[in-house]
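Here we describe the complex-level prediction in full. Unlike the single-chain runs in Section 2.1, the two entities below were treated as one system.
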Amino acid sequence: METIKLTRARAHAGIAAMLLGSVAWSGGALAQNVSNTTPNAVATSTTTTDAATTSATTANAAARGQNNNSAGSSSRSAPTDPGVRGGDPGAGGALTGLNDVERQYFDVAKEVFQEVDAGPDGLGPRFNLDSCSGCHSQPTIGGTSPATNPQVTVATLMGAKNVVPPFITANGPVREARFVRNRDGSPDGGVHSLFVITGRSDTPGCNIAQPNFAAELARNNVVFRIPTPVFGLGLVENVSDGALEASLAANAQQKRALGISGRFNRNGNDGTIARFGWKAQNKSLLLFSGEAYNVEMGITNELFQNERDSDPACQFKATPNDHTPLVSEETASPSASFQSDIDLFAAFMRFSAPPTPASATATPVAQAAPAGQTTGAATATTGAASGTTTTAAATATSTLMASASADASSVMTAAAGSSAAQPSSTASSGTSVTRGGQVFSNVGCQACHTKTLTTEKSPLTGQSNVAIQPFSDFAVHEMGTGLADGVSQGTANGNEFRTAPLWGVGQRIFFLHDGRTKDLHEAIQQHASRGSEANTVINNYNLLSRDDKQSLLNFLRSL
Amino acid sequence: MRVWIYLGVAACLAGLGAVRYGAVPSSYDAAAWQSANPEDGKVADGVFVSDYFDLSYRLPEGWSEGLAGPEPTQSGYYVLGSWAPKHDFVGTVLVVAQDMFFAPESSEAKNVVAEFRQVMSAVDGATIDSEPAPVSVGGRLGYRIDFSGVGLFRSMIAIEIRCHVLTFNLTSRDPELLANLVRSLDDLASVRKKMSDPVPECLRDYATSENVLHRVEPDGVGARAVSIPVRMIVAADGSVKHVHVIRASAVQRRNIEEALRQWKFKSYVKQGRAVEVETGMMFNFKPANM
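The structure predicted for the assembly as a whole is:
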């Protein structure tokens, strides 16, 4: 049995010396057990602290109660986000292996997902946008917030007089706004739509006002959400509760050693796991569709029958605005011709393929930046498209995240503001991404961003027992005061968020629930704050060499 | 019924060296453990003190508390503290505890480290530097494993106290610093003044129908699909002396506390004498119970 023995004074003096940069340990004093504690260890160099910290990082750290250790470290050796991966989206199509009937159904559903609704269709009276695909469009239909925010344009479309709130900008993320509390101090948490149909030429006579966002902002009472990508969600829907529970329970000791726990947001009525939305508040894709149709577009439907604003002067279609057609709508899919919009929205998500990662041999890589170089936030850039081909096989044991082939030139654009962020050779790109995968697992990202899940038996052709790689456990985790929005949904509290699936993250522009950053490194840092389960993982990240941090970002941008 | 013996009482440590007592000044008094809860530990004047776990540890010179961790979980898991250098960020210490009442019966410290080894050995790029082995940590029996990967050198040391497994998770990019952090844990000390201070017997499944003589069900107010872990101390006369609702809403907490204080247990007799017992149970507000 090894016995750990050292006087306190000696140990502390030694540690203090190490912290001062001294390596002048007394060999005689400390030699007794070093061989046991560091058998294969090779000392890594300790990076010299760069005193220059970015004001933004510092301000953010202070705002979220982050300690100086992490913030200082992050700025000391910040890597460069390679930026949005260009090229073929590798997403937006149907699941591989569907039969012709299912493909036709998907194609019609995708068209309906892109429909733009107007007053006579039931838009509003309060709404955030006028189509599903307007929000879900990056890198293609079904994705997330695009580079140019369509909410700015829709605010005054058709003569509307909406004032664009200050948190909505042309180059910012699509956002919905929620108020944390009501005026009397009781919990609110609901969506307060940005716009009204007042003034639109297709909704004459309606005269309601927008919420007073200025007043609520002054009360620090407004929080935001950005759209979640919907690619591959039918596969997620088809993962059994048992599989999710087993996944969360797996590797328990590693999770505990990282301060990670997590739990599921369960449906209050049947106790099953809800898994969609930023807080996993939506039980199913149909519920997700119905709620979004009502909340985001103001279109009532068979799940959400009633208008959120029932001013009689603002109703231009019978409720529910969307309903199951009893006469065929003569679409290209006989199956779809008798479906309501929300059924088809859900079908689009349910039948859509997951994002395709870039090949490890053709992946964006930013090189190490010179010391002190400012790192710019990644911008929504797209490289020249080149063929990216999904090669996922629809066999019972296949993975739907199989590698795609892609030209190296098609998947890399440098992060804006950093001349150091240049594509490297294909070989070094692959090496960095591979290393990044190791970093991802070693620092503990995968403890929550679980790589692989398997679907159960599916009614869809070729989708049973399929291994998928969403990089999420679909549990909610305490994310600390820095990310907390104070909104409770289901059993998720105001500090908890669902582990964001990382498939397709390489092609996203905005990160975190409110789209607060475009920079992956900053998004990672934002995981740490008082009360967060991710604090230790972020500490581990901050202990990495700059090259390993860079490899992690390169790996993430390959997804 | 499986009986877990409180290691602090720990004659079981004979041969491993005595637990250090009173090594660090503390406000501890004999009754402190009765009202303390696992999450109540704190750092003051550079010393981490936990009355519940009867532990104190002086942080290395130049180190301070890191960011606080999350609240205790529904599985009885606690982040007790994290420590890091104030300036040059070269390493961290994370201390967590898992309540053994709400973990599989195989969750002793030895098995925790063994299971951890299995997990880490499967991580791409990770190397097991030292296989799990017993160690003495401040006179307590513990188990240790060392591993490394992607430039980080790490040790996990697990010990059992009061039916919890505490793990000290040490990370550094400098192996020598890691080694000295490990050694510094030998300065873990007791905050009790003397071994004769009373401690309850630690019994995993004492709150069964066999032992509960009078039971009042709490109102199941709040979210329905949750399980709520509760620890309690049962006095020698069978009354409930202390209730710790580990994670619940305020309403659920109040309802459970009110109900449990009306419970009456059969006295636990040890060596012919009724003694205090600490045990746990899970209240399930699941649809199946509705």
